[in-house]
Specification:
Its EC number is 2.3.1.286. It is built from ten helices and nine strands. With 242 residues, it is of the alpha/beta class. The strands form two sheets. It has a six-stranded parallel sheet, with helices on both faces. A three-stranded antiparallel sheet has the order 5-4-6. The mean pLDDT is 91.
Length: 242
């Protein structure tokens, strides 16, 4: 699929004019780095496992069958050696230029920070950091990846859990409000790599009122009609064309 040059030029002009851009991204931002998404053609939700896909990301499984939880995490989530792609790098560049004020991400891979971004709000946490569920000692992800079975704290023998939000856990209300505040103050919101079908994605984007809204996603979203610029393509490909 060839990129729409007219829309790219419209996006380029809008970015040049903007002084307070906020970016809201989902799994599609990282698929070009080789990470699987959830609902896409080859997404995790399309695979067949012994349990429903959601179960493998649940607090319940971690509590009642931690060995199965970590077996899946090591195989499907934690074991990817990936690097930032064009989308991550362009956003970091805009931040250095003072144009981008915040990245709000649903991803847990830490690729925005690896690309050089500092102003990142991680709604669902970061897989590269862990903590003991009992004494709360901090660990790196190597504490999970370089062990077998259930990773245990060196101090209290509690289970070491990745710093990610699982099914059954609530999102940090303070992070949600911080994200909403950034969107309200932005003079342009770019949404990329997300279908906007789950909360809080839709509710946060609704905070963008009377300001340019750009949506870049391969598939349809329920807010396409509200977008000033809508590009159906991969976000890394679009950003490379700027």
């Amino acid at each position: 699929m060839e990129i729409n040059e007219e829309k790219i030029e419209s996006l380029r002009k809008a970015v040049d004019k903007a002084e307070n851009i906020v970016f809201f991204g989902g799994a599609g931002v990282s698929t070009e780095s080789g990470l699987p998404d959830f609902r896409g053609e080859k997404g995790l939700y399309r695979q067949k496992y012994g349990l429903p896909p959601e179960s493998y990301f649940s607090l319940r499984l971690l509590k009642y069958d931690p060995e199965e939880f970590f077996k899946f995490q090591r195989k499907r989530i934690l074991g990817y050696d990936v690097k930032p792609n064009a989308a991550h790098l362009k956003l970091a560049e805009w931040e250095k230029q003072g144009k981008l004020r915040a990245i709000i991400t649903q991803n847990i891979d830490g690729l925005h920070q690896e690309a050089g971004s500092k102003k990142v709000i991680e709604l669902h946490g970061n897989i590269k950091h862990c903590h003991c569920m009992v004494c709360h000692k901090s660990y790196k992800i190597s504490a999970v990846m370089e062990t077998e079975g259930i990773p245990r704290c060196k101090i209290c023998r509690g289970i070491i859990k990745p710093d990610t939000v699982l099914y059954g856990e609530k999102l940090d209300v303070r992070l949600l409000e911080k994200a909403a505040d950034h969107i309200r103050k932005a003079d342009m919101l770019i949404v990329g790599g997300t279908s906007l079908t789950v909360t809080p994605a839709v509710s946060l984007v609704h905070e963008c009122k009377d300001k340019p809204l750009v949506i870049i996603n391969l598939g349809l979203t329920p807010l396409d009609g509200r977008a000033n610029i809508r590009i159906y393509d991969k976000i890394g490909k679009v950003f490379s064309a700027l």
